[in-house]
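Follow-up to my earlier ticket, as requested here are the two runs.
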Amino acid sequence: MQSIRKAFAAVIAAFVILALTLAALFALAGCTESKDTGFGSDLPSNIQVIDDEFVIGEPGKGAQDFSFTNRSGKGISGIALKASGDETFTPIVERGTFAWESGASARLYQSVESESLYDIQIVYDNGDVSVLHGVALASLSTVDVRIDAVSALTYLDYADTLGQKKSTLAAEQVYKRAEEEAAAAAQAAAAAEEQRRAEEEAAAAEAAAAAEAAAANSYYYAPPSSNGGSSGAVDQSADSCLDF
């Protein structure tokens, strides 16, 4: 009987040890589990998440510090940059390599020229691509990325390095109007060119038809001349045939 009690006590002790071990493991997992910050996983090497904020790039080496908050209402999956006037964007964050949710903040360290203007390409997680034009990045400090509810244009609300609040919406609206006017002018020029070619082709066809008619009427039967002779021309309008 005593041996049974000892065996039972050993089993109970084993269960207690197992329970404590599992509890410790679960507690450890809870402490080390990564917090879901909405930033996605498998981030590129130039991005970290520190205190629920993206940190893109590295401080120092002449890099300027920008604080961005995504207030567009959509997730951002890529950012690229180029000097205004250049043809090709250089990715800051490759498209599809991170998930910057609306409401989340990001700190960007980027070297920019103080007197230069830049275009910023933003790729949204639904595939839409927007471009911000002629941004003086060196003057920006705290930036909100927004989408205008009326025009659907992406723009920036920002505080400059002096703390003054500004917006790029008006500039983006001007750029869009200029772009639309340029597209309309190009379309009108293409239509005018097409009309000109059509008129040239019609005139050429008319001239060819006139030349063909003139050639067909160059030989004809003329009435006898007043001196009883013949004009020497053959009247092709006569119904008779010539026998040779």
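Run two:
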Amino acid sequence: MKTVSSRKTLTYLMLAIAIVGGVLLGSLTARIALGPHFGHYQSRYLNQQKLNYVGPSGLQTSFCHCRMNDGICPCTSQSQNPSYDHEIWSQLEAIAPTKFAAKQVSQTIMEATGFNTIEPQRSEGGGRLGYGGKSTFLDGTLEELFLVYKRPKMRVRALFARRQDPTKALLIVTPGSWSTSEHIMGLKDDDYHLGMGRHFFEKGIDVVAFDHGSNGHIEALANVIAIVEGTQIFGLWARSVCDLMSRLDIRRKYERVVLYGLSRGGRTAEYISALCTGFDLVISGDHFIADQYHSYHWNSMWSAKYLKYNSWFLHRVPLAGRLTKPDLMHAAKSPMAYTIYEKRQPKIRETIGSEFHFYNELEGNRRWRFIFKKVKKHVPELEQIERMIAGSWTGIRGSGLLSRRPQK
């Protein structure tokens, strides 16, 4: 009997020791230094624990930078060492952009976008001009045009609203993502472009509205096709605008030609300005990112949201780490106006102030201007744009910029 009692006592004692040991081990788990890449493959259980993070703080955020797995963010780390994801991002962040001379920048952008590899080439007249439907539009006509290319084997569509006798001014619009030329011309319910094409046509201004990708994911697929064929989708979009201007002899027919792009279209407009001439003004709407090619897509809160748009960063030759925003600004062949929120200018100035002088004056022969928006919405400022199309800066607040770089 005594032996059985002793065995029971020993069993209870061992069970108590195991329970206490388990509690102690659990309390110490948070302090265990795991391997350097453990954070990339941690289990659901460990993800749910409130473990101490003693490594770099770059990913300490409630926002998940990578693909969620079973409701858990797998790219945080429970290690004394950074996670695998953080290591990769740190390498990207450490890439220092190489400064180019203006001529080198233009050549680099041309190579990156495949501008000169697109066929038919510019020396052959550019994309073949095709015609679609034509109908009455207000007091003029609306015609469907196509620029047809052999390489990549694609065509780019545009709607051209004009009067029999051309007006003095023409507005060319390259759209942002998730929009179409029909939205811009007011043929569909208004989206964030506010039917601006119809609005300006009613004001007596002829309008060309392009279809440069109507879906962010389709844009990405189109870019992959273009890359495989030795070109790039931004290069094709730029060529479509430049080729249409040549095919229709736009410069001879209009006193003023203004190019406008909102959101993603703002970036397209910047590329177009760097790749061909002929505009009295290029307006980049709501897309001035001061560190655009250094860190914007690579190591910021925006990464998970925007990396899916591969056309923004996948080029024939890398621009990330090789190009700065001031490089792109200096490469522009036409005067540039960037619409921004006034409260953002101090941060922008902090980032690019070493490259530009800032003046509280828009008048005069300025190559670059910041236009302060009146409305805190991601939409075109129609009244401001109308004045800019006319070449007037009256009633518009903003800053004029002068380059600090040595001028020839």
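The only thing I checked on run two: Residues 290 and 348 are 6 Å apart (CA to CA). Let me know what else you need.
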